[in-house]
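Whether sequence alone determines local backbone shape is best considered at the level of individual chains. Part of our work consisted of pairing the sequence of a single chain with a tokenised description of its backbone. This step matters because it turns folding into a mapping between discrete strings. For completeness, the protein is quoted in full, as a sequence line and a line of structure tokens:

_____
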Amino acid sequence: LLYTIKFELSTMSKRRNEDPPASASNKKLKLSAPGSLDHMTLPEELEGKVDFKPGFKTADGRPWSVKIVSWNVNGIRAVSKSKKFHYVKYEDPDILCLQETKCAEEDFPDECKLLGYHKYYNSAAKKGYSSTALFSKTKPLSVAYDIGIPEHDNEGRVITAEYTNYYVVNVYVPNSGRGLVRLSYRRQWNADFVRYCSTLNTLKPVIVAGDLNVAHTEIDLANPKSNVKNSGFTPEEREDFATWLGSGFTDSFRHFYPDKTGAYTFWTYMGNARGRNVGWRIDYFLVSERLVKDVAASEIRELVKGSDHCPIMLLVAEPKEG
């Protein structure tokens, strides 16, 4: 199977247009202006509890220069109504990767179309389903949508942005479904997507950001024994994930916290799971092995609410000269 990767921004598709960043003049628009951050207040539960400008450095002492945040919002309109999206103003990421927005570009809430960012959307053919968005303060060198395989490319699951030093691949991996009805499809997706990422990795380093819908090891979920036959923790899905890591990628969170338990990014809405911290770690930053030296931190923003997932954050330094 040959993969032809084309990095070009489509100006013909409504779901893939780019909004230019704010100019000096339009930053002074009234509060109701689309994307205005002026009215956004920090959610009460975060006050004094989150360091939005952490002093992490790489192993060799370099400060981070780029902050990437990934968040499965489980419906961007619902997060907007809850006012929990206000958190983004204070996090102030350089790159924001959103999954499961369940929203076409034309229906995206105005306040979530952040000023000062280049914005890219990939919407599912089915209205209100799946879908992803990527916002970037720096305009990428190129942007690509999907992975070039028709059977995978109608659910709005992938946006790839190319930067000088790496690619950022925003992805929402398919769930195997209740009763594992999509497990065979999921495994084909896994193989094709890993091949796609591996192809990119031959060109320059890759950062994969998103909801990968798998808990890799037993410490990545609260109840491993009772979930072996459930979507997200089947032997097949975990084997595929291990194969991915074996192809030249590193789980950045486990790089810094190899044995940490109770660190989750998803909690079902049922049974007060979040309050009891009965969760799963299924959201990741996977980075090319040769890029690990430039990563200063990989953190979970578990206090941020608004979705059944919380955001995750990656801090990346400029490459070492020479």
Remarks:
- The radius of gyration is 19 Å.
